[in-house]
Amino acid sequence: MTTEPLATDFRDRAEALAPELTTLRHALHREPEIGLELPLTQGKVLAALAGLPLEITTGKALGSVVAVLRGGRPGPAVLLRADMDALPLQELADVPYKSRIDGMMHACGHDQHVAILVGAARLLCEGQADLPGTVVFMFQPGEESYDGARYMIDEGLLDAAGQPLVGAYSVHVSSNGPECGTFSGRVGTQTAGNAELKVTVRGKGGHGSTPHTAADPVPVAAEMVLALQNLVTRTASVFDPVVLTVGLFQAGTKLNIIPGTAEFEATVRSTSPEAMADFLPRAVSLVQGIAGGWGMAADVDAHEVYPAMIAAQEAVELGREVVSDLYGDARWVYSEHPIMASEDFSRVTAVVPGVQLGLSARPAGTDEATAPFNHSAYAVFDDAALPRGAAVLAEMAVRRLVR
Description:
Largest sheet: 8 strands, mixed
Number of strands: 16
Low-confidence stretches: 1-8
């Protein structure tokens, strides 16, 4: 089965939707929400989808929205995704649509992702009669450390089409990338897997003047921190790297009191499931061995949070082809390295061939080298990226269904 490419059509129609998408994005930005329950955001999404020929369901354990578009012609099924939640951050950027909710900000561009996916839904719904298959639109809360994708999968997301999904696609905007509207991607690991390591060293408290009568857990915990860094460099391959950062270290209440416990927490990142599976047991054994060597005990909790996000070659090449056809070869760049941040869209790409394309939304007139990055209180995203993201996602869906 073949069909004429819809590149020019989607490109122009998406530009016509730009004012509407910008209005939606600004409304989302003014009222950011955090976590798994996003009633204001969910309401705006449902209003934006109202009247479209979609089968819509909302989440039970979280404020998600799943919308299914069934084409007028038989064919396979694909999924398009946007995350919806914001960050616990006070916005300092000077924009007219600044957050009205203290301590919350769309600093990672999820408001843009929602507007982009709404745009893609509108484009695809207009051509429902000729659509050869089914498209599932995934509007997800709780990407920022709440594992919202897992909840949605548990509630049947991957079965929403009534048939297996053959592709899953999303975009993620950046506030400091190359020229606005430039897309990027890479085959293989896109974002790192993420694990948490939490350690409590149990010693024996005492007076700071007589440490020999106590069992001081502080230097033991400090020894563990240094030893874990050596463990990284001496057991993890530089070609399949692991990154460990201790971001929390707590002990004691006063300078002359030896505490009974000391604790620290670390984030562990890896570019492959194999590296993570090898490293975590080593880390647990190491800290327990150090504690035992000092006659103490260590409570250790080590668990994976998100797997690495692996992009399928077919999905990356589809993205490159679509971007080049819609906007020219100059608007596509291959990403040289994985990103060591984590992303729970990895739960979808672990079972469905897919990709998350990068999309630069750096405002015109700013310097790529100095523009604030995502998660900054000063981050600003250019709305010119919205129609481009919508057109690319819609075209990727159509081309994969046709194939």
